[in-house]
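Q: Hi! First time doing this. I have a protein sequence and I read that you can turn it into a structure. Is that right? Here it is:
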Amino acid sequence: GATQLTDKNETISDGVSKLADGASQLSAGTDELKKGSDQLAAGTSQLQANSPALVNGSAQLASGASQLASGSSQLVSGTAQLSDGASQLASGMKQYQDEAIDPLTEKLDIFLGDTEELQQRFKTLTSEDLVYSNYSGISKDMDGKVKFLITTKPIK
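A: Yes, that's right. Below is the predicted 3D structure, encoded as C-alpha cells:
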C-alpha cells in the first residue's frame, strides 16, 4: 500500500503544480478582465455623456440634408426657367432680326445707296486734315474752324 501511496504522491504533486499554474493564469486573466471591464465602463460612461451631442448632431444632419434636397429642387426649377427664358430670348431675337433689323437695313441700303461713298464722305467731314482757322478773316480774340467739302459728279 505504501508503494501505491508513493506513486500517487508524485501524481498529486504534479496535479498541485498544475493547479498552482492554473491559479496563477486565472489571477492574471482576472486582472486583464478587470482592466477590460474598467475600460468598458469608461467608454460606456463617455458614450452616455456624449449621446445628447450625437442625437443633436444627427438632427442637424437630417435638417441639413432636407435643406439640401429642397435647394436642389429649387435649383432644378430655376435652371428649367432659365432654359425656357433663353429659348424665348433666342426666338425673340430671331423675330427682331427678321421683322425689324433686316427690313430696316434693306430700306437704308435703298435710301443711302452706296455706303462706301457715304462712309468716305463722313470720314472726310470728321477728319482734321486741311482744317483752316478762318475763311475771310478773324479777330485775334476769336477761334474758328473752316472745312471745304466739294462734291462733283465723276468724270466719265
